[in-house]
Amino acid sequence: MDLKNYVPLKNFNWQPEKTAAEISSQFATSMSTRRSIRNYSSKEVDDTIIRNAILAASSSPSGANQQPWFFGVIKNKPLQSTLRKEAEKCEKSFYEQQADTTFKSALEPLGTDHDKPYLETASHLIVVFCQQKIPQEDGSFAPVYYGIKSTSIAVGLMISSLHLSGVATLTHTPATMSFLNDILDVPRYYRPQFIVVAGYPEEPVKVPAISRKPFQDICKFY
Ligand SMILES: Cc1cc2nc3c(=O)[nH]c(=O)nc-3n(C[C@H](O)[C@H](O)[C@H](O)COP(=O)(O)O)c2cc1C
C-alpha cells in the first residue's frame, strides 16, 4: 500500500471501551423502532432535518470515492401531485401487466397497490439519483464504479438520520422512474434509484403486521 498521499485523521471517533457497547446497543435499539410509514399527516418537517440527513448521507463510503449520488428534494404540492400522477401511471401498468403472481403474493402482507397518496401528503420527497457515468471535458464519459451499492449505503445513512430525528420514511421504488429526470431537470446520466418519502405519520400510526428475522438467521460469527 502506498501511503504517500495519506494525511493524519485528527477526529477519529474514539470511544472509551466502557461506553462503546452501550452506544452501539442504544443505536440498535433506536433503529429497531424504524418502520416504513405509508400514511402521512400534513405536518411539515423542518428543512434543516432533511438537510442534515442528506449531509449524513454524503459521508457515506463510495466506490473509488466517486460519490455518485444526487438528492432532489421536493416540498412543493403541485410538483408532488405531478410526481404522484406519473408514479401511479407507472405503478398501475406494473401491477396490471408486469408483476408476476409470485411478486404480488410477496407484496400481499404490505397491502400496497398502485395508489400512492403519500407522494402528495408527506412533507418532503427526496428523489435519490445514482450517477451512471461522468462527463469529461472532451465530450466522452468515464465509468462510475459500484454506483448503486454506494448510493444505497448513503440512503441507509439518510434514513437512519431521519428516523433518529423522529421523522418517518418510506423507501419507494416506482417501476419506471425516468420521468423524474424530466420533472427535476436532472441529466439522463443520473438514474433515479429511490424516492424517499419523509414526513410525520397520520395518527393512529399503523404498519403492516410483519416481523424481522432473528439474529441467528442473519449472522454467524466465524
Ligand atoms: C429497495 C426497497 C424498495 C422498496 N420499495 C417499496 C415500494 O415501492 N413501495 C412500498 O410501499 N414500500 C417499499 N419498500 C419498503 C418495504 O416494503 C419495507 O421496508 C419492508 O416491508 C419492511 O418493513 P419496514 O421498513 O417497516 O421494516 C421498499 C424498501 C426497499 C429497501
Describe this structure in words.
By secondary structure, the chain is α+β, with helices and mostly antiparallel strands. It has a single domain (38-201), classed as NADH Oxidase (3-Layer(aba) Sandwich). Helices cover 40% and strands 16% of the residues. The chain contains eight helices and six strands. The strands form two sheets. It has a four-stranded antiparallel beta sheet with strand order 1-2-6-5. A two-stranded antiparallel ribbon has the order 3-4. Strand 3 and strand 4 (141-143) form a beta hairpin. Helix 2 runs antiparallel to helix 6 (147-164). The longest helix is centred in the middle third of the chain and has 22 residues, at 77-98. The chain binds flavin mononucleotide. Flavin mononucleotide binds at residues 35-36, 38, 110, 112, 170-173, 207, 210.
Can you lay out the helices and strands and say which pair or pack?
Blueprint lengths: L16 H16 L14 H11 L11 E6 L2 H22 L2 H7 L10 H4 L2 E8 L1 E3 L5 E3 L3 H18 L3 E5 L6 H6 L5 E10 L15 H4 L4
Antiparallel strand pairs: 1-2, 2-6, 3-4, 5-6
Helix pairs in contact: 2-6
Bound molecules: flavin mononucleotide (FMN).
